[in-house]
Design goal:
34% helix, 499 residues, 23 strands, 16 helices, six-stranded mixed beta sheet, seven-stranded mixed beta sheet
């Protein structure tokens, strides 16, 4: 009997393959980074062939480390960076262009043009999303317009569109020899082309963005048997799960009931709250999205607050300013001072996402005096993540009319004790880190395992979730209020910098 479930976690900066046991424990893992291609300011691209090669390599490495064979895996799940947009040739398997990453802002002029003729929320009723450079529709429109011959090939069905889940599934299941061209409801909901109510590509949206339906993948539930892998090392293993990374983390954190929320601290920060079987329209600058769909069950929806720059700010302090030599140095440096020295860092490098949605904002460091040191800058950078999370959570509680009892956290930054305590302090809500922090990959594994009966039902998943650490608020209300007011002043300085 197959003992384990595998998960491909294809993220913005790296690709991982993790094998999980029945208790959600990590049996084996491997990880490889890929290049960040930056051809112009604001443009961010990935080489999809490099990602596919890395995917194959991490599978080999993790399986070898644990001495596993394909027959040891009951199923495999895929989770991926969302919105990142790719067109590839159905017959050769070659991408027509580098993938346009979710952070890429080259379609800013198109966003402005659509906004002028219908306002920023002209597609929000159907999609739950505002007009922004973030989503896939305008990125795909750019590829169809700018890549020679792309539109004709897409109209004929010879060029295929997909987010990275679709690209990996197609390659895993045969590629040019009959690879499956699918995407799940969670990833489809991030394209701005799927109708949240029908869970289908919307003809009016396709017409508005001028997207040919022939190039689009078929939309399927997040958890179901999609097909079998043909890749030699995993030949015959069933693919049973596909979810966007933040949706997978919500499932991995077992936020299965309305009002439960998680925050993932990675390159950016992504706070999602389960809102149940009905989409909740946001009046506060949040996104309404499909959380996941398990088989034939009704889909679950979520409110999401997306923050563009959190962990990426630490990387910038390391690589851009040379303030630290490794990301791990940020916490001890920040601990050298008792507070931020009245320094506030708003990392609006490519505008502000939720709840502001201001593409014209740019980063600022406010409150500088001669007293400020590199340690104050380090502390201000960490605190920026917590302040941005508070902004999003306040909007989420307003929209959902639900006060959060605790915030479940995951991602690379949750090892930072200083940040997690400050997060609890500035939210005035307990912050909880689970025993298994690889929740994104675990969520994909859960979706796949449920599809094949490895886990019987969602109740099995709840039994796996255990607390590793809890941080409780320890800041008085007056200090919390004062710090947050100063942060809001700094944000105001960052707005409308680009005219």
């Amino acid at each position: 009997m197959s003992q384990y479930v595998g998960a491909i976690d294809q993220g913005t900066t790296s690709t991982r393959f993790i094998v999980f046991g029945r208790r959600g424990d990590v049996v084996a893992s491997a990880q490889l980074e890929h290049r960040q291609i930056l051809p112009r300011p604001g443009w961010v691209e990935h080489d999809a062939l490099e990602i596919w090669q890395n995917t194959q390599q991490v599978i080999e490495t993790a399986m070898d480390r644990a001495g596993l064979r394909a027959c040891d895996l009951a199923a495999l799940g895929i989770t991926n960076q969302r919105e990142t947009t790719l067109l590839w040739d159905r017959h050769t398997g070659e991408p027509l262009h580098h993938a346009l990453v979710w952070q890429d802002t080259r379609v800013a002029e198109a966003v402005a043009a659509y906004t002028r003729t219908g306002g920023p929320d002209r597609f929000r009723e159907q999609t739950g999303l505002p007009l922004a450079t973030y989503f896939s529709a305008l990125k795909l429109q750019w590829l169809l317009r700018e890549v020679p011959g792309a539109r004709a090939r897409a109209q004929a069905g010879d060029a295929l569109f997909g987010t990275i889940d679709s690209w990996l599934l197609w390659n895993l299941t045969g590629a040019t020899a009959g690879g499956l061209h699918l995407t799940d409801v969670s990833n489809a909901s991030r394209t701005q082309l799927m109708n949240l109510s029908t869970l289908a590509w919307d003809p009016a949206l396709l017409a508005a963005f001028d997207i040919p339906v022939a190039c689009l993948p078929r939309i399927v539930p997040s958890s179901m048997v999609h097909g079998e892998i043909t890749l030699a090392r995993l030949a015959g293993v069933r693919i049973g799960g596909m979810l966007g990374d933040q949706h997978a983390a919500l499932l991995g954190q077992t936020c299965l009931n309305p009002g439960e929320a998680k925050n993932t601290y990675g390159t950016g920060c992504f706070l999602l709250m389960n809102t149940g079987t009905r989409p909740v329209a946001s009046q506060s600058g949040l996104l309404t999205t499909v959380a996941y769909q398990l088989g034939s069950d009704l889909p679950r929806y979520a409110l999401e607050g997306s923050i563009a720059v959190t962990g990426a700010l630490v990387q910038w302090l390391r690589d851009g300013l040379g303030l630290i030599k490794s990301s791990a140095e940020i916490e001890p440096l920040a601990r050298e001072v008792a507070d931020n020295g009245d320094v506030y860092f708003v990392p609006a490098f490519s505008g502000l996402y939720a709840p502001h949605w201001k593409a014209s904002a740019r980063g600022v460091i406010a409150g500088l005096t001669a007293y400020a040191s590199r340690a104050h800058l380090a502390r201000a950078a960490l605190e920026a993540t917590a302040y941005q999370t508070r902004e999003v959570l306040a909007a989420m509680e307003k929209d959902s009319r639900t006060a959060l009892a605790e915030l479940r956290v995951d991602g690379g930054m949750v090892v930072n004790e200083l940040l997690m305590q400050f997060q609890a302090d500035i939210l005035d809500v307990p912050v909880v880190r689970p025993l298994v922090t690889e929740t994104t990959a675990l969520g994909a594994a859960y979706a796949a395992g449920l599809a094949v009966g490895y886990w019987k039902d969602p109740e099995d998943l709840l039994a796996n979730w255990q607390i590793a650490r809890r941080w409780t608020p320890a800041m008085d209300a007056q200090q919390r209020s004062s710090l947050y007011r100063a942060w809001q002043k700094a944000v105001a300085r960052s707005l409308d910098w680009v005219e």
